[in-house]
Amino acid sequence: MATKRFQELQVYQLSEQLVDDIWKIVEGWNFFAKDTIGKQIIRSADSIGANVGRGSFQDNRRFIKIARGSLNETQHWLRRAYTRNLLTTEQINAIKTIINELASKLNSYLNSIGNIPDKK
């Protein structure tokens, strides 16, 4: 069975879309907001894609779990940004759509790599 390069995986492409959308929003914030919460959101969102396809096959399951943790962290920072009036309801709704799909794809990807027998 041929394996896809990680850049071709929908889960990876969604993670790129999420962080690119967040980046565009954060660019418009004032310096204080960018320097505090903006950096945190970007770092956690970047970590999602950085962990997809990382490591050997055996390590990949662990890194996908780390990616899920980074997605949870990103959601935390987005909630804080919304509470602090840095995000509009429209922006949150658009991002939420991507997050929901990405969460589902991360879980599906984790389950799929768990079902492939180890090659020995």
Automatic annotation (TrEMBL):
A matching Pfam family: 23S_rRNA_IVP
SUPFAM superfamilies xref list: IVS-encoded protein-like
Name of the protein in question: Four helix bundle protein
Species annotation: Nostoc flagelliforme FACHB-838
